[in-house]
Amino acid sequence: YEEVVRFMLAKHGVRLRKWRKSMSGIAYLIQYRDGTQARLIESPRPKSPLSMAIFLHEIGHHAIGLGIYKPRCLEEYLAWKFSLEQMEALGLPVTDKVHNRVKRSLEYAVAKARRRGIKEIPTELAAYDTGRY
Asked: What is the rounded end-to-end Cα distance, in angstroms, of the chain?
């Protein structure tokens, strides 16, 4: 996994801010006054298929363009899609645990969008619209 981590960080110009102890992550962009940017992530250290999927999901936010896709639930979907595609391309196992995490994460993102008053859910996310929010 270490080789994949080094490769993905370098390929996408992302810096790791810290390894998280929890199975959660965040991707963010810092804009400096001189116009430069820092592309950062926090993620669990990849030691299993699930932690690798989360790491690649955070990289995916930068790879697809952080903040470009609206609504936010669509960006989450595309970041997970990137993660799963990269795992498959690299020959890494995509376990039931990974699929379950993706499903739960996208259901949460859609429910959050509903709570915030979204008018229309993107078609890619229709399967994750459980009506529970």
From this structure: 36
Tokens 């490769």 map to which residue?
7
> Is residue 133's pLDDT more than 80?
no
Two tokens at 40?
A: 């950062």
- CB atoms under 10 Å from CB of 4, counted, come to 17
| Contact of 59 with 25, CB cutoff 8 Å | no
**10 neighbors 4 (Cβ within 8 angstroms):** no
Q: What is the mean pLDDT of the chain?
A: 96
d(CA 50, CA 56): 10
DSSP string for residues in 1-68: -HHHHHHHHHHTT-EEEEEESSS--EEEEEE-TTS-EEEEEEEE---SHHHHHHHHHHHHHHHH-TTT
